[in-house]
Amino acid sequence: MDTRLIIAITGPVASGKTTLTEDVCEQVENKLGKGCTQIVHQDNYYIPGGHPNYDIPSTIDFQLLLDHLLRLGHGEIITQAPRYDMNTKQRHYDLILWPAKFIFVEGHQLLNGLTFNWDLSVYLNTPLTLCMRRRIKRDQDSFEQHVRHTIPAHYKFTERIKKKCDIVL
Question: What does the alpha-carbon distance between residue 137 and residue 142 come to, in Å, rounded to a whole number?
Fold first, then answer.
């Protein structure tokens, strides 16, 4: 059986998790060859229907995410992985996930809602003021939305997982 490494990239909302994950995957593939990485985005596992606060663990289908990670870890291809559409608040099952050598999973609630034996976990310790500016610009969230939902969820859920991670950047 091929050995696969499953790596969690976590941290505050809009901390740069996706950018870091994509950059690392690109560098790994430049060194080791195309197809040796796979990215799994926690955001694709939101429970359909829309939520007033996407920053809390209860909005994520961790059971499905766990099932997919276990299957990828055993070398299985996931032929109908979800892609969450923030406009329609629905999931479309049109992604394929490959059991690559390096499987990167990025999301702000990974270590809160998912009991999984990560090979490596990385926390991006980006200042909240920078995260807030990025989030408001990216998602057109209001300052009020950020203060009412994102910041309290960060301190209740995300900040506390920093000490569980293998690496804090």
Answer: 9
pLDDT for 76-94, tens place per residue? Answer: 999 999 999 988 999 999 9
* pTM for this prediction: 0.92
Sorted by sequence, the CB contacts under 8 Å of residue 27 that are 6+ apart come out as none
- The hierarchical CATH code for the domain 5-168 is 3.40.50.300
Phi/psi region, residue 49 (left: phi>0; alpha: psi -120 to 50; beta: rest), is left
Give the residue from 33, 17, 49, 26 showing the smallest Cα distance to 122. 17
Q: Single out the residue of 105, 109, 107 nearest to residue 161, CA to CA.
A: 109
DSSP string, 86-102: TTTTEEEEEEEE---SE
- Give me the sign of the Cα torsion angle 157, 163, 167, 169: positive
- With contact defined as beta carbons under 8 Å apart, do 106 and 21 qualify? yes
**Domain ranges for the chain:** 5-168
pLDDT for 94 equals 97
Q: Which residue matches tokens 């989030």?
A: 135
